[in-house]
Amino acid sequence: MLEEFKKFAVRGNVVDMAVGIIIGGAFSTIVKSLVADVIMPPIGLALGGVDFANLMLVISEGTTPMPYLTVADAKAAGAVTINYGLFLNSVISFIIVAFAVFLLVKGINRLREQEKKEEAVPAAPTTKDCPYCVTSIPIAATRCPQCTSDLSVS
């Protein structure tokens, strides 16, 4: 059973999948930072200085009274909140990751289609039929080896 597991674990597809998952996790971290640190601050500034990461709806107050300026303050007070700003950041991150994956898959599909087209191009013919005896002969032939007809005339 251990030997069978070794064969499974070192297969090319499994290793490729593992590398893809690791790179995908790293890419996801970069996209989250892009959204939270680069995209959302200017949008928040344009909307009047809103910090999307701290947009929340307080359902129940915690041990200290409201207002809570940040999600961290609300959590520290033990308040129950719906953090729709964090959800919005996650949705935007998902859209960016999904678009990046779409572009990647589209590029891979284009390469595959190009390979199929190259494979589908038939090879140039290497033989022709003699017009007199219909025997298959090399294209460069000027005389049929079967019937000895002169093919340069035709």
Walk me through the structure.
The protein is mainly α and 154 residues long. It has two domains: 2-50 and 83-121, Orthogonal Bundle (Non-ribosomal Peptide Synthetase Peptidyl Carrier Protein, Chain A), CATH 1.10.1200.120; 125-154. Helices cover 56% and strands 8% of the residues. The strands form two sheets. Strands 1-2 form a two-stranded antiparallel ribbon. A two-stranded antiparallel sheet has the order 3-4. A hairpin with a 6-residue loop joins β3 (127-129) and β4 (136-138). α2 crosses α4 (84-120). It is elongated.
Primary descriptors:
154 residues, mainly alpha, Non-ribosomal Peptide Synthetase Peptidyl Carrier Protein, Chain A, 2 domains, two-stranded antiparallel ribbon, 4 helices, 4 strands, 8% strand
- DSSP summary, beta strand count: 4
Specify the overall morphology: elongated
The computed structural class is mainly alpha
CATH 2nd-level architecture of the largest domain: Orthogonal Bundle
Helix content: 55-70%
pLDDT averaged over residues: 86
Uncertain regions: pLDDT < 50 for 5+ in a row? Answer: none
Q: How many whole angstroms does the radius of gyration measure?
A: 34 Å
- Please list the strands of the largest sheet in the order they lie side by side: 1-2
- Mind telling me the CATH superfamily name of the largest domain? Large-conductance mechanosensitive channel, MscL, domain 1
Span of the ends, CA to CA: 71 Å
User: What is the highest CATH level, the class of the largest domain?
Assistant: Mainly Alpha
Percent strand: 5-15%
Taken in chain order, the helices and strands follow as HHEHEHEE
- CATH topology annotation of the largest domain: Non-ribosomal Peptide Synthetase Peptidyl Carrier Protein, Chain A
Count of DSSP helices?
Answer: 4
